[in-house]
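Try it yourself: sequence plus phenylalanine, in.
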Amino acid sequence: MSEELKLSILNKLESENSIADTKTAFVDVSPETILGALKSLESQEKVNYKTLTTEFWTIEAEGQDQIDNGSYEARIFYAVPAGEEGITIAELNSKYGKVANLGQGKAFQNKWVKKNGSSIVRLVDSIVDQIKADLEVVQATGTHPNTNVIRDLKRRSLIKQNKVLSYSVSKGANFSTELRKQATDLTVEMLQSGAWKKAEFKKFNFDSLGVNPSGGHLHPLMKVREEFRQIFFDTGFEEMPTNEFVVSSFWNFDALFVPQQHAARDLQDTFFLKEPAVATELPEFWETVKDVHEKGGYGSIGYRYPWSQEEAKKLVLRTHTTAVSSQMLYKLAQEPYRPAKYFSIDRVYRNEAVDATHLAEFHQVEGIIADKNMSLGSLIAFMDRFFQKMGITKLRFKPAYNPYTEPSLEIFSWHEGLNTWVEIGNSGMFRPEMLRPLGLEEGVQVAGFGLSLERPTMIKYGVDNIRALVGHKVDLGMVETNPACRLDKKMGKEVFQSAVETAN
Ligand code: PHE
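Structure, out:
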């Protein structure tokens, strides 16, 4: 149909050279359809066109009523019988209601009728209903030669202004009466067959709004990480550099007073590097660490085994971010004493059986606080405040064991959905056997805690299988549409699910 219209526009131009007004040339075609055809022809430079605006007046419902039944004033005139008697005002009002109200004034003004006591009587024998006549002119022509009439009818809300768009059309630079299908893309087939040489290409439309580029979406884990970072920054923590994924066993274990026979240092638990397998050297205080493992010190009797440099040099994928904390505490001890609060959130690796809730890698959120006169109470008070910022108010602590902290506490929080206590982290006061060899002076205590980033993310986004969150099965649509995370606000499974559904 639009091809037909385009052709008849072109043919008309061929025979008449121009089209003065499409409104008269194509009476039955809507302005929108005409415009569509003209735009397409213009993009091929077959025509040029200009927009014409025609204003016209149409009759409103009340105007139509006056065309059909006469103006209100005329109706009042005809309601008054000829003769001295006339009609009483009361009767006129009760018979004609609204018309009587609206028409009387005008009928008086026109000197068609007058008051005679409580009656109304005619002043003339016949009248001309000019309003009705004027409305009929507007209805027939869309306007009226007398602009005062238009103004008056409009003021009485009897007519309404309207606009129509139409177009004047002339031949374009590429005018012809032939319509060829234009190619939009240069295709492989066109290149192979040589058809591109003869093809006519559609012009680029630089006014169209392109497709939104999709990119830069934060993974839910990174959203939750960002929330944790803000909570840490709010409470005055500095971020530790976590860009070293490979560390020596010395930093990952020995400096943390983890004995070399500890189960965590088994092949089954830790990823050891093959190439290079060992660090070239150990930090200069290694002998202090050796001594504390072998003989103890700082009130400890040590583990009493022969400590091996070779074992300490073995390179591993860090099994916890405490391997970063130990290095940061060492650095801190090299400077004059100052209290410090450090945090890190990054990946760690464990040689674990992979299942629905475990992968061989995950993220740890870790915080350490170094200060004097700290107690276990300080750590508990800090964790109460920290988790409160995440909207977690019910906490419980359970005595636990870590080689590098004493006392150690597992952190449990009450899970409303599961109606039970769930373990959310591990914490403790670092042992003097770890801190003193690092060089931290007596009287400086360090409290620390760690949790996984995956656990709160899975709870927050209602994911029950870690593979839906990490790995090759992750739905990228989910990553693009998942909502922002606020740890202190409730966000249910529904939000996440609906995000996933929107993506599909
Ligand atoms: N490193 C511990 C873990 O991997 C967490 C922790 C950090 C515990 C600091 C105590 C102090 O679970």
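One thing you can check immediately is this: The first helix runs from residue 2 to 16.
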